[in-house]
Amino acid sequence: KAGVTQTPRYLIKTRGQQVTLSCSPISGHRSVSWYQQTPGQGLQFLFEYFSETQRNKGNFPGRFSGRQFSNSRSEMNVSTLELGDSALYLCASSQGLAGSKFFGPGTRLTVL
Amino acid sequence: QQQVKQSPQSLIVQKGGISIINCAYENTAFDYFPWYQQFPGKGPALLIAIRPDVSEKKEGRFTISFNKSAKQFSLHIMDSQPGDSATYFCAASMIIGGTYKYIFGTGTRLKVLA
Question: In what side-by-side order are the strands of the sheet with A74-78?
């Protein structure tokens, strides 16, 4: 089985712009979670989707949003980018709500 | 109460030695404890996981020891190899809102010297 894929792998944006990141889960996995990874804060949970519904949300501002499609693929959007949004954004999929999470390679976002 | 404290922050071990990374948690509602290995430029990869009904789980050179009363768990890497050099994250998870929510430790950067 192919693993979790994320596109694009690298992004450079300027402050104020918006960005959309994409995640394709492992085939058969219906749950997709998003995490922000930074050297200072480690892995911080953004949100989780299951069957196109947001099931859990972390403590991030409303500029961070996501959605999940009927084929379980998920997108994450960040609007009005700030310098502090520079991070590695990781997507993880699991078979069900209680399954082990498998991470993708991440999207490295740099905000200038 | 939802924090997971991981130590040490970094670790240097000679080839063939034992690497030990420790994690501690507070919330007894956590009931699943995975460890992830992350190489530079890659996403974290699930290494091994344990539930609190067992005190130890071994997979190859990797062992999790779990102490429920102390609310601590640790990863032991036996016969450490240079290829094990990576960042290791522990996590604790529990069901919230019908789904497992993961709380990650801050990571341990392991370097194994050849």
Answer: A5-7, A19-24, A74-78, A64-68
* Average pLDDT of the residues of chain A: 94
Q: Residue A106, by phi and psi: left (phi above 0), alpha (psi -120 to 50) or beta?
A: left
Q: Smallest CA–CA separation between B96 and chain A, in Å?
A: 8
Find where tokens 């996590």 sit: B91
Give residue-wise pLDDT tens across range B97-108: 777 888 999 999
- A56–B97 CB contact, under 8 Å: yes
Mean pLDDT of the region A29-40: 92
Burial label for B65, CB within 10 Å (0-12, 13-18, 19+), is: middle
